[in-house]
Amino acid sequence: MQNFFESVILRLAEGQVEFVVVGGVSGALQGSPLATFDLDICFRHTAENCARLAKAIAPLHPRLRDFPPDLPFVLDERALMLGTNFTLTVDGGDLDLLTEMIGIGGYEQATSDCIRVDIQGYDVQSYRSTSSFKRKRLQIGPRTGPRCRC
Amino acid sequence: MQTPTSPTPQPLPDEVLKSYFDRGHQGDVDRTQIALLLSLTPYERLQKLDRFVAFLNRYTPDDAKLLRKRHSEVG
After folding, report:
1. Which residues of A touch B54 (CB under 8 A)?
2. Which of A8-22, A26-40, B2-16 has the lowest mean pLDDT?
3. I need a surface site. Which of A54, B18, B35, B59 has the fewest CB within 10 A?
4. Which residues have C-beta within 8 Å of that of residue A29, sequence separation ≥ 6?
């Protein structure tokens, strides 16, 4: 049975979405001992890529996280173009779609400093976690909230 | 004399749209994840952790595995 992280990343890769894995998963793939339960993805904010992204995750029934469940919402190319960062709940877990990140920037900045991880034959980009030291240079404080070690 | 017309709807400013879609990343903290973690039972939390560890064990490069092992040893 496929893992949530694996299945979402494979869907995006198979749908030829331009994306970078960021956040806790990218850190853990490079040796961070901290666990995270959501998947953060930074994607290129173009109409074509938004269309591919919307098509790729549509089968996972994306909904806005923390919103009333009966609130009508369709995640399509237009919705993705209108916003920048989306915190979603999809089948199996939580998925964050980001185009702007504090201390990093956008997709172009993230891809300029990333490693490659082979996930079932797909060459997936993962943001280099050591780059998070840039956050300190930008005088962004430490993250707060509960964390688990893995 | 000109007939009065209804005002043309103005598009929402970008900032309003951004904050509408992103309930989590207000500032540097994803508060929806914190709320989720606090709402889980220990068993549910363990299940999520197991799922995450299974993914990492499969795809983490060897050098990063070693790094994580050493991090864990230090505590």
Report:
1. 3
2. B2-16
3. B35
4. A21, A115, A117, A126, B56, B59, B60, B61, B64
Question: Which of B25, B29, B41 has the most A C-beta neighbours within 10 Å, making it the best mutation to test the interface with A?
Answer: B25
Q: Does B47 touch chain A (CB under 8 A)?
A: no
Rounded Cα distance between A32 and A21, Å, is 14
Q: In chain A, whose CA is at the least distance from the CA of B38?
A: A146
Residues 6+ apart with CB under 8 A from A115: A29, A30, A125, A126, A128
> How far is residue A61's CA from residue A39's CA, in Å, rounded to a whole number?
16
Identify whether the C-beta of residue A4 lies closer than 8 Å to the C-beta of residue A92: yes
Q: How far apart are CA B18 and CA B12, in angstroms?
A: 10
pLDDT computed for residue B10 by the predictor:
60
pLDDT at A139: 45
What is chain A's mean pLDDT, rounded?
Answer: 84
pLDDT of amino acid A15: 95
Whether pTM > 0.90 for this model: the answer is no
Please state the ipTM of this predicted complex.
0.75
Mutate to test the interface with A, among B34, B57, B67, B68 (most CBs of A within 10 A): B68
Q: Scanning every residue of chain B, which has its alpha carbon at the shortest distance from the alpha carbon of A128?
A: B64
Cβ-proximal residues to B48 (8 Å cutoff; 6+ apart), any chain: A37, B40
